[in-house]
Write a structure and sequence with these properties.
Length: 89
């Protein structure tokens, strides 16, 4: 059995609190995608610090935090396919 087969058989026990959080993450990113498609100015920020978010929102900009998405994908175990795609491009 190779490592890929072992990974497929691995069972991941998820906390029940993960499900409402996952829904909130999905909602946040869908909102950002809809805003971008509608032509709303969008910024990708590396960090959501105390003063930054209110300033950006006061400027009526849509904010996307890609490192949060990366952490969510890693937690779900699907990050590798995105990493492979990025390497290929």
């Amino acid at each position: 059995m190779n490592m890929a087969d072992e990974a497929k058989k691995k069972v991941i026990n998820r906390l029940k609190s993960m499900y409402p959080l996952r829904a909130k993450v999905d909602e946040t990113y869908l909102k950002s995608v809809e805003a971008m498609k509608a032509g709303k100015p969008t910024v990708w920020a590396m960090l959501n610090f105390y003063y930054g978010d209110p300033i950006i929102k006061a400027m009526d900009l849509e904010v996307v935090y890609p490192e949060n998405y990366g952490a969510a994908m890693a937690a779900m175990g699907v990050a590798q396919s995105y990493l492979d795609r990025a390497d290929a491009e």
